[in-house]
Write a structure and sequence with these properties.
alpha/beta, Aspartate Aminotransferase, domain 2, 7-stranded mixed beta sheet, 14 helices, 38% helix, 17% strand, globular, binds pyridoxal-5'-phosphate
Length: 391
């Protein structure tokens, strides 16, 4: 039991470090030092009209840019027709959203369960794996980040947020990414192996597709399922619908959230036919999951992706940045890590002053870019010039 005074002290430190401008609001992240009042395309604005190019994308969320007119229009239309009804009411747009997402993802994904966040999408995938295999253990990778709900936390490698809850967490074997020794792990008691095809939070580290192909084969041979957490790598960001398609790998489940509905909260657990057919109706549920507003935003997002060729734009943007930037660049498409060195925090602050929002990572020395997929090439060119001048 932590004494009350200790809690108060910790909280005070937390608040003062964060210099929280709104004491009533619990400070969960250290905010950028401005108040955002408006977003348009790849930029956000404060009340004085000052603009920042958003290379952080609201944490990899704004896939189609801020307030894309087609998404805004779809949301407004849906809000005026039917703002909400749970899955207890049959709703055409929910069925169309499921069909649209499964078509976008492609085989072998065949069925989707809608929820509201990335953690929930992973929680459901892990729960499904437990139910189908009867096994209470998981395997995950060093540096992986999968969310803050209990099972998602069990497979997350971030002691800062897992340690306070260690007594509640499910057993999880931690494997080393891309290490052949991980392929010899004992998967016979494991319900599922979960991984981000490109680990984002840990500093943008990619799995080798061949390693993943072998991992899937090993896991399947031992009766374990494989879950790809594509909450950051999905929805066009790597230049294909999802990483599993780009790399030609067949997981049993794929989770998605963030860019799925352009900023309207939505999570999704996609499953193969083999997985979905093992679940009885009612095995999964959520009051808000698959609400009409989120479904309208998802359908509009998919339409914009296709009409404006956003996955291809992500590849062109990556090429531009690799060509123009003087620092080493990791990752693929528009999930990129920039190796800027030990002054990374100072450089992020200087970039802010120059009008750019960028992400930090848990690897000191690496800044992350996860902008809207329609970020303007001109803004990327200017950014490269400005960052080069700070290196
Ligand atoms: C790879 C990955 N998985 C899961 C999550 C959790 O998503 P959410 O914050 O929507 O619960 C995140 C969030 O940053 C993430 O980056």
């Amino acid at each position: 039991m932590v004494p009350a005074f200790a809690l108060q002290w910790r909280r005070a430190t937390f608040f003062s470090e964060m210099s929280a401008p709104f004491p009533a609001l619990f400070p969960s992240y250290k905010p950028f030092p401005m108040t955002i009042v408006r977003g348009e395309g790849d930029r956000v604005f404060d009340a004085d009209g000052r603009a920042w190019v958003d290379l952080y994308g609201g944490h990899c969320v704004c896939s189609t840019g801020h307030c894309h007119p087609a998404v805004v229009q779809a949301i407004a239309k849906q809000a005026s027709e039917l703002l909400f009804y749970s899955a207890a009411g049959e709703i055409d747009i929910r069925a169309r959203a499921a069909e649209g997402l499964i078509a976008f993802a492609g085989a072998p994904m065949a069925s989707v369960f809608f929820c509201n966040s990335g953690a929930e999408a992973n929680e459901n995938a892990l729960k499904i794996a437990h139910q189908l295999t009867g096994r209470p253990q998981f395997a995950a990778f060093r540096g992986g980040w999968h969310g803050r709900s209990t099972l998602a936390l069990s497979v997350t490698d971030d002691p800062k947020i897992t340690d306070p809850h260690s007594a509640l967490l499910a057993p999880c074997t931690v494997l080393e990414p891309n290490d052949p020794a991980s392929l010899s792990a004992d998967f016979s008691q494991v319900a599922a192996v979960i991984l981000e095809p490109i680990q984002s939070m840990s500093g943008v580290h990619s799995f080798h597709p061949e390693f993943l192909r072998q991992l899937v084969a090993k896991a399947h041979a031992a009766g374990a399922l494989v879950i790809f957490d594509e909450i950051q790598t999905g929805i066009g960001r790597l230049g294909a619908s999802f990483a599993f398609q780009k790399w030609g790998i067949q997981p049993d489940m794929v989770t998605s959230a963030k860019g799925l509905a352009s900023g309207v909260p939505m999570g999704a657990t996609l499953m193969t036919e083999a997985v979905a057919s093992e679940l009885s109706p009612g095995a999964l549920g959520s009051t808000f999951g698959g609400g009409p507003l989120a479904c309208a935003a998802l359908l509009a997002t998919l339409q914009v992706m296709s009409e404006e060729g956003l996955p291809q734009k992500a590849i062109e943007a990556e090429a531009l940045l690799r060509r123009e930037l003087r620092c080493a660049v990791r990752g693929e498409g528009l999930l990129l890590g920039l190796e800027v060195g030990p002054r990374s925090a100072e450089i992020a602050d200087q970039l802010f002053d120059l009008g750019y929002l960028v992400g930090k990572s848990s690897e000191p020395g690496v800044l992350r870019l996860m902008p809207p997929l329609n970020v303007q090439p001109q803004h990327l060119g200017e950014f490269a010039k400005d960052l080069n001048s700070l290196l």
